[in-house]
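Hey team,

Filing this mostly as a record. A colleague (T.K.) asked me to run one chain through the structure pipeline before their review meeting, and I want the input and output archived in the tracker in case anyone asks later how it was produced. No errors, nothing strange. Just documentation.

Input sequence:
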Amino acid sequence: METVIQIAIVDDHPMFRDGVVYTVNQAVGMTVVGEGASAQDALKLAGELLPDILLLDLDMPGQGLEALKQISANYPVIKLVVLTASDQGDDILEALDNGARGYILKGISGSDLIQVLRDIQLGLSYVPPSLAARLLASNRQEPSSPVPHTELTKREEQILTLVAEGHSNKEIGQKLFIAEKTVKHYMTNILQKLQVRNRVEAVLRHKEWQVK
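Output structure:
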């Protein structure tokens, strides 16, 4: 029997939240187990329900980022996903630095949202390709602990180069004539090799090694 992914959704705009709830409940193998409208609601849902995934906005009463930090620290089993209208680089990086597994913009389609949630449940991370490319272009250098330099295969190098250019997994698959699922497998391996959590960190880490 297939395990149902349990999702909680916290957003202070009822009409938007209702739309997300409907989209998730229509998806096979997913169900919404709780809803809220504030940071306090997010903390309560996390503690009482321990959902597989908790979707929350940053811009809501009680400070969404603070709730994200507390939930990440106290309930690491919950996969936290930011669903917001903010495309500011600082918001993205702060969310990722404080435990978010994904950062999704509210303009995403219902089908894409479901696919991202499935990927995150499988252990992947997500940042919109357009935002990832913008962050990389800013050449932000994060302080990080030294890690061994791990060689990437030629194919992994090709994929990481396309990621840095802002291409999605689907677009990378089309360019390299491989299945999107195969690209996802490569990305999982790349993240593990580079000891990072998401696409942005992967390209930044690889750039650090290239200049050493």
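Quick notes for T.K.: Confidence is low (pLDDT under 50) at residues 139-147. The first strand starts at residue 5 and ends at 10.
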